[in-house]
Known about the structure:
Pfam families: PadR (PF03551). The protein is mainly alpha-helical. Helices cover 62% and strands 12% of the residues. A hairpin with a 7-residue loop joins strand 2 and strand 3. The model has no long low-confidence stretch (mean pLDDT 91).
Amino acid sequence: xxxxxxxxxxxxxxxxAGTVSLALLAVLGAAAQPMYGYQxxxxxxxxGEGVLAGKQSALYPVLRNLEAAGLLASHVEPSDAGPPxxxxxxxxxxxxxxxxxxxxxxxxxxxxDSVLEELIP
Length: 121
């Protein structure tokens, strides 16, 4: 029997790579206050029904890239329990990009859904 599991994992990894930035911007765009990495990971886990859940450490390079692009800003605060925490917030530029990326995502999703519904009943 053909094992499809490795292909599914590869496909999910490719999808995730393209959507995590959008999901991170969405989480921070909806947040009333800046959030640190663990909070963001837990929010993704709850909101994304586990689909975007993964290793928390994998979020940090994406957060750094978004910050380097000017879409997020961060600051470090001491923590009562453990090491200092880096808090992230979305910037005005990040809000503009979030709206554009969300529109692009919806258009792509709708197009793929249309093809799938027509060809795979």
